[in-house]
């Protein structure tokens, strides 16, 4: 988007241009260059891709997630059919491209993503990101803590089959898609006592794999308890844990049963449905949601695009909450 022209920041209507036509952007929103004057003066929420899966330990492919998610996001429209929220009437939202990454070097990628996201936040832009593997949450949290959380550790609602609080892989690397939230807690980015993990399941390497997060105070809702509580019970518990302070939402598509999201790096059977996930996200309405990511969409394992559609639909659900919260707090330009 050129510097001299201000877009209307609304998705292109399917009545004006068929959904299969045009250059794909997230939700058919305008593309705005980061650090441009247009971004600084107009954009409230930047949707960005992080095309990287260097932290993956088994089934790679999430580096291709953002591109397919852009394609499938043409199916998103303007009005939430349940809440009535019209996010693009509340905020100015744009596709701000992809974060720089280094496909062969983990620490360098962490620095690149942090620098990129921090540049948006410093310009008053809240990031909503499409990954990429789950390690990308760590540099995002590093980038947003000071500006969006007042320097205090943030709370988190974490949808996942795995806790991602493991320590090291092969006895060495501290940084994999199974370690981001252990590192985030150690670095003071994440408040474990305001963190709830929903949908945890699957076999473990050792009985101790569960212990560290629980010892820090994380509220872990394993899938068996999830089904015992029911959706309304899970929402109530999540709201209790996060309270009223700034909260990050991290959605790993493997929280869903693989029949709904087969295109992911570490599928685990016995998960929640897509509609249950939507209900829980909607149940967070009114919480102080400040930023979010959707991760682990891996198109090579689902070339139909169904998993990418799940990912962008959940992103749309979260965007509605973020837009309403930013408008309420007077954080729109």
CATH topology: Arginase, Chain A
Mean pLDDT: 96
Radius of gyration computed on alpha carbons: 18 Å
Residues in helices, as a percent range: 25-40%
The chain-level structural class is alpha/beta
CATH architecture annotation name: 3-Layer(aba) Sandwich
Total helices: the number is 10
Order of helices and strands: HEHHEHEHEHEHEHEHEH
Number of separate strands: 8
Keywords for this entry:
333 residues; alpha/beta; Arginase, Chain A; 8-stranded parallel beta sheet; 10 helices; 8 strands
Structural notes for this entry:
There is one protein chain. With 333 residues, this protein is an alpha/beta fold. It has one domain: Arginase, Chain A, CATH 3.40.800.10. The chain is 34% helix and 16% strand. The chain has helices at 37-42, 65-72, 87-90, 106-122, 137-149, 180-186, 211-216, 223-242, 274-282, 306-328; strands at 45-50, 93-98, 126-131, 154-159, 190-200, 219-222, 247-252, 289-295. It has an eight-stranded parallel beta sheet with strand order 2-1-3-8-7-4-5-6, sandwiched between helices. Helix 9 (274-282) links the parallel strand 7 (247-252) and strand 8. Helix 4 (106-122) runs parallel beside helix 5 (137-149), helix 8 (223-242) packs parallel to helix 9 (274-282) and helix 9 (274-282) runs parallel beside helix 10. The chain is globular, with a radius of gyration of 18 Å. It starts with 36 loop residues before the first helix and ends in a 5-residue tail after the last helix.
């Amino acid at each position: 988007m050129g510097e001299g022209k201000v877009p209307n920041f609304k998705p292109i209507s399917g009545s004006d241009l068929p959904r299969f036509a045009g250059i794909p952007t997230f939700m058919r929103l305008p593309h705005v260059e980061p650090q441009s004057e247009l971004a600084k003066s107009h954009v409230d929420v930047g949707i960005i891709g992080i095309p990287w899966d260097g932290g993956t330990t088994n089934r790679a492919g999430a580096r291709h997630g953002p591109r397919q998610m852009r394609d499938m996001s043409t199916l998103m429209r303007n009005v939430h059919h349940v809440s009535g929220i019209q996010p693009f009437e509340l905020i100015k939202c744009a596709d701000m491209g992809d974060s720089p990454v280094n496909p062969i070097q983990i620490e360098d990628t962490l620095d690149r993503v942090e620098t990129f996201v921090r540049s948006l936040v410093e310009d008053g832009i809240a990031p909503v990101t499409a990954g990429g593997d789950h390690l990308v949450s760590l540099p995002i949290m590093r980038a947003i803590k000071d500006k969006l959380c007042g320097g205090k550790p943030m709370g988190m609602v974490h949808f996942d089959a795995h806790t991602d609080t493991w320590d090291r892989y092969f006895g060495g690397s501290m940084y994999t898609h199974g370690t981001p939230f252990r590192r985030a807690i150690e670095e003071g980015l994440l408040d474990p006592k305001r963190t709830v993990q929903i949908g945890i399941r699957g076999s473990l390497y050792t009985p101790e794999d569960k212990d560290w997060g629980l010892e820090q105070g994380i509220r872990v809702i394993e899938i068996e308890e999830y089904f015992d509580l029911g959706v309304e019970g899970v929402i109530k518990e999540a709201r209790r844990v996060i309270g009223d302070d700034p909260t990050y939402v991290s959605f790993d598509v493997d929280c869903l049963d693989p029949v709904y999201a087969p295109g992911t790096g570490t599928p685990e059977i016995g998960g929640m449905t897509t509609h249950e996930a939507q209900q829980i996200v909607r149940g967070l309405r009114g919480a102080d949601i400040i930023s979010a990511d959707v991760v682990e969409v891996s198109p090579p394992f689902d070339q139909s695009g169904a998993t990418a559609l799940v990912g962008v639909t959940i992103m749309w659900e979260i965007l509605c909450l973020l837009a309403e919260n930013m408008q309420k707090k007077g954080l729109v330009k």
